[in-house]
Amino acid sequence: MAENDALAASRAITGATQQGEDELVGARLRDFLSGQADIGGTVTAIRIDAGRRSAGASSGTILFDAEIETGGGSQTRRLVFRYDLGGAFFCQYALPPQFAIMQGLHARGLPVPRALWLDAAGAVNGKPGLFMERIEGIAPSTMPFNEGPYMAVDAAERHAMLLDAARTLALMHRTSPEGLADEHFARRGGTGHYLDREIGWTLLELRRTIPPTAAGTKAEFYRDIRATLEKVADWLTANAPRHRPPELAHGDANISNFMYDDVGRVVALLDWELAHPGVGEADLAYQIAGIAHFALLAPPVDGIPAPDEMIAVYREARGKFDDWDFARVLGEWRLAVFASMGMSRLPPELADVERTYWAASRKRLAALVPGIEP
Fold it and tell me: Where are the domains positioned within the chain?
């Protein structure tokens, strides 16, 4: 029952931010692509994949094939259109910087989907969107220990895939954030030190989604969530390693954002909307916390690496591993904030799932931050 409820919760969160594609979307996709000088021919047909999305809560996603007539025949281009949902999940959302970040990282040879065209004016559906090449592989899932690529392999392969996710983070953190989205990074979260800005950015999202005056039967529950997460934010502000230069942080390095080839190697790290100047090790902490979160209501799964194994692989690939006490709290806190935001969307019949996940998040935070009761 817990497993079924967890899957239902995941699909409710994902579905809450997805919009149905009306019958004109295909025509608008075709018109936009036809206007691109490097499309390589005449776009004759658009075929949209209408299957259920098992991942993605902060942006809309359309998978489709474009049939293109060229001078020497025809070709099929497998593409993805990712679009702004107008603050349906994050209110401080900006899609154009994601396009620049993805283009820059792909050009540096990192495993990021190739971003092709930016629909900054919202010609396709009224909000900004970006087109990218489609990565072939098993689609990721927001419940990665119930379905998706990690459950399509045996325990040994699963173990190797998860370690490769940590190794990929280390490679990302070795690249400079400079030259990717400098103006966006400089103003993200307001003014001040980059760590204060990121803490403030996250708090704003929390306060908007779980307001202090929440009404109804959940009012006391949400007051506890707010008070606990605000207290952790105070600890982070007081203990921030301000001597560190900013590093490229992905911001949502959950294992559900990785795609693999047929031998289990990472071919893409997806979803760059939360990228920011930050502490690289916090991405790893977020990833480790996410594994615990995903395993909570999943059936028993073999082959999950221990945190020390993830840390060892990351340290070896990156060549450094610093400020873990702070990074671990920051990663756990950000995951707890975003999970609470997502769970607040659940229907009343799944309230027990929301409370179970929050209790686990609170317990993990209490083990790290003085003054938090488990």
Answer: 16-133, 149-366
Say what the pLDDT of residue 245 is: 97
CA distances (Å), 266 to each of 105, 160, 248, 270, 347, in order?
15, 10, 19, 11, 35
Are the CB atoms for 56 and 70 separated by under 8 Å?
A: no
> What is d(CA 214, CA 234) in angstroms, rounded to the nearest whole number?
22
Cα–Cα distance measured from residue 367 to residue 374, given in angstroms and rounded to the nearest whole number: 8
- Judge if 16-133 and 149-366 fold alike in CATH terms: no
Rounded Cα gap, residues 80 and 345, in angstroms = 26
Give me the phi and psi of 118, to 5 degrees please: -110, 125
**20 CB contacts (<8 Å, ≥6 apart)?**
none
- What is the homologous superfamily of the domain 149-366 according to CATH? Aminoglycoside phosphotransferase (APH), C-terminal lobe (3.90.1200.10)
- CATH dotted code for 16-133: 3.30.200.20
Averaged pLDDT in 10-residue chunks for the chain of 374 residues:
57 54 84 95 92 64 94 91 87 93 98 97 94 90 91 97 98 97 96 97 95 76 95 98 97 96 94 96 98 94 98 98 98 97 90 95 97 91
Residue 120 — φ and ψ, nearest 5°? -65, -30
